[in-house]
Amino acid sequence: MEFEKDNYSTHISQQFNAELETIRTQMLTMGGIVERQVNDAVEALLTGDVELAEQARRIDKQTNEMELLIDEQCTTTIARRQPAASDLRLIISISRAISDLERIGDESSRIAQQAIELAEGNRTQHGFQEVRHIGNLVRDMVKDVLTAFARNDLEMAYRVAKQDRNVDQEYRSAMRALVTYMMEDVRSISSIMNVIWVLRSLERIGDHSRNLAEHLIYQVSGTDVRHQSLQSIKQMVGSDEDSDSDEE
Amino acid sequence: MEFEKDNYSTHISQQFNAELETIRTQMLTMGGIVERQVNDAVEALLTGDVELAEQARRIDKQTNEMELLIDEQCTTTIARRQPAASDLRLIISISRAISDLERIGDESSRIAQQAIELAEGNRTQHGFQEVRHIGNLVRDMVKDVLTAFARNDLEMAYRVAKQDRNVDQEYRSAMRALVTYMMEDVRSISSIMNVIWVLRSLERIGDHSRNLAEHLIYQVSGTDVRHQSLQSIKQMVGSDEDSDSDEE
Q: Is B245 part of any domain?
C-alpha cells in the first residue's frame, strides 16, 4: 500500500514536472518568435522593405495569443498543483516574462509601423546609423536573455541587465543628434520623428530585456531584484564582471 | 471534535479573507498615491512648478517599494493558502494591477522630469493646451478605474477601456499639431520635444488604465479580456453603453 502510494506520488510529480517543462518550453518558443520579430522590424526599417515590415506587424497577433495561452496554463497549474517554493517561483517568473516578451513584440510592431510610414513618405537617412547601432545592441540583449533563460545562467542575465545602461546612453546621445538634424533640415522633421519613435521603441526593448533578466534572477535565486541597482544585482549573482559602479 | 474543527476552519478562512482584504487595500492605497503623482506631474508641467515636479519624481521610489511588497504578499499567500478559483483570480489580478500602477508611476516620473527640463530651458507654450486636455482625460481614467476596483464595478471598467480610444485619437491629433509647430518655429524644436515626450507618457498612462480595467474584468468575471476588442469587452460586462463599434 505504502509502495503503491509512493508510485502514485512519483507519477503525479512526474506529470507536474512535465507540465512545468511544457510551460517553460512554450515561453522560450514565444521568445524565439519575438526575437525574430525584433530582427525583422529593424531590418525592414533599414532596407525600406515594406513586405517584411507588414510580416513583423502580423506576428503581433500570434504573440498576444501565446501570452494568454501560457498565462492560463500558469494559473491552471497553480490552482491544480498548488506548487510551493521554487516551482511557484518558476511559474511566477514565466508569467512575468511573457508579459515583457509581449511588450517587446508590441514595440517591434511599432518599429515596423514606422518603417512602413518612412518607406511611403519622404524617406530620410538621418539617424539610420544610430538605429543600426542601437538595433544591434538590443537584438543581442533579447537573444542573450533568452539563452540565459534556457541555461538558467545568472551571470549572462547580469550582463544583459548591465548592457541596458549602455543602450540608455547611446539612446540619449542619438536623441541629441536627431534634434540637431531637425533644426538643420526642417523639411525632414516629420520623417526624423519616425526615426525618433523607432529609437524610443528600441530603448524600451532594452528595458524589457533587463526586466526579463531580473525575472530569471528571481526564479533561480528567490530574490526579487526589480528596482535594484546594478551593483546589488551583481552581488546577487556573484559576478566577477566589472559593473563600473558609476551608476546613475 | 467536529465542532472544534469547524471552528478552526472558520477561523482559518476568516484569516485568509482578512489577508486578501489587506492585499486589496494596499493595492488601492498604492493606486491613490499614483493618482496623486499623475496630477502633480501634469500640474507641475503646466505651472512650471519645479518643486512640485521634484516631489512627483521622489514618489517613484515609494511606489516601486510598494510593488515589491504587495507582490511578495501575493506570492506568500498563494504558497501558504493555496487559493483556488475566485480567490486565486483576485490575487493574480492584483499582482498584474500593481505592475500597471508602477508603470503609471514611471510615466508620471518622466512627465515630472520633462517639467523640470522645460522650466529650466527655453520655455515653450506650444502644446500646453493639448497637455491640459489629454492630462485631464487620463487623470479621470486613473481615478475611475481605481473607483471601479474599489466597487468591483465592471460597467465603469468598460467605460475606462472605451475612453482609451478617445485618448489615442486626441494624442494622434496633438502629435500632428506639434510637428507643425516645430516646422514653424525651429528655435522651439528642443522644448517642443519635451512636450512630445509628455504627451507620449500621458498616452501610455491611458493604456495602463485600460490594462487595469481589463485586470478587474478578469478578476470578477474570470475571462481574460486582454488583447480583445472593445466590443467583446462590452459584451462581457453586459454594458448598455454605446461602444460606437467603429473600432480600429
A: no
pLDDT band at B240 (very low <50, low <70, confident <90, very high): confident
Does position A246 have pLDDT exceeding 50, yes or no?
no
Q: How far is residue A72 from each of residues A14, A29, A109, B24, B147, measured CA to CA in Å?
A: 21, 16, 24, 22, 27
Q: Given a cut of 60, is residue B1 above it in pLDDT?
A: no
B192 domain residue, yes or no: yes
Query: Which of B61, B183, B219 is the best residue to mutate to test the A interface, defined by the most A CB atoms within 10 Å of its own CB?
Result: B183
Residue-wise pLDDT for B13-44, tens only, equals 888 999 999 999 999 999 999 999 999 999 99
Residues in chain A closer than 8 A to B179 (CB atoms) = 189-190, 193
> What does the pLDDT read at residue A1?
46
pLDDT of residue A6: 65
- Rounded to the nearest 10°, the torsion over CA A175, A178, A180, A181 is 180
Domain CATH code at residue A18: 1.20.58.220
In a domain, B43, yes or no: yes
| Minimal Cβ distance to A227: which of B68, B75, B183 | B68
Q: Is pLDDT above 90 for B201? A: yes
DSSP B4-45: HHHHHHHHHHHHHHHHHHHHHHHHHHHHHHHHHHHHHHHHHH
Provide the domain count of chain A.
Answer: 1
Q: Verify whether the Cβ–Cβ distance A193 to B179 is below 8 Å.
A: yes
- Residue B183 to residue B199: CA distance in whole angstroms: 18
Contacts for B78 with CB less than 8 Å, ≥ 6 apart:
A78, A88, B88, B91
pLDDT at A3: 53
Q: Which helix (H) or strand (E) holds A46?
A: helix A2-47
pLDDT in tens, B136-192: 999 999 999 999 999 999 999 999 999 999 999 999 999 999 999 999 999 999 999
Mark yes or no for CB contact B88/A78 under 8 Å: yes
Chain B residues whose C-beta sits inside 8 Å of any chain A C-beta:
64-65, 67-68, 71-72, 75, 78-79, 82, 84-85, 88-89, 92, 99, 179, 182-183, 186, 189-190, 193, 200, 224, 226-227
B189–A183 C-beta distance less than 8 A: yes
ipTM of the complex: 0.91
Domain of residue A193, residue span: 2-237
Classify residue A75: in a domain, yes or no: yes
> Nearest CA to B191 among B77, B115, B135, B78?
B115
User: Residue B238: what pLDDT?
Assistant: 85
Contact list, A227 vs chain B (CB under 8 Å): 64-65, 67-68
